[in-house]
Amino acid sequence: MVWSGIMINGRTCLHVVANGTMTGQRYIDEVLLPHIHLFRGSVGDKFVFMDDNATCHRTLAVQDCLDSEGIQRLV
Questions:
Q1: pTM of this prediction?
Q2: Which of 12, 17, 22, 52 is the most exposed place for a label (fewest CB within 10 A)?
Q3: Mean pLDDT across the chain, nearest whole number?
Q4: Tens digit of each residue's pLDDT (9 = 90 or more) over 6-36
Q5: How far is CA 14 from CA 2, 59, 65, 67, 70, in A?
Q6: Bridge partners for 10 per DSSP
């Protein structure tokens, strides 16, 4: 599996998930948290996060992480 993020003025590098399944916690640890600072640096503190509704994006752990970082999610 490969993950990448797109923004109004660019994109992230590809993140290759080599082994196993992308769980909510793995998504937080390997993808979400490392890229939050990139998003904020590119578009400022007031951005809206949008995902593609994959199962790993919709876990309670991911929602709690976004809430704790003060990130608004487009539902």
A1: 0.80
A2: 52
A3: 86
A4: 777 777 788 888 888 889 999 999 888 988 8
A5: 6, 22, 22, 25, 25
A6: 7
31/67 Cα distance (integer angstroms):
16
C-alpha pair distances (Å), 27 with each of 5, 13, 24, 40: 13, 15, 5, 18
> Phi and psi at residue 15, in whole multiples of 5°?
-115, 115
Between the alpha carbon of residue 22 and those of residues 31, 41, 47, 48, the distances in Å are 10, 26, 25, 23
Residue 52 CA to residue 74 CA, distance in Å, equals 10
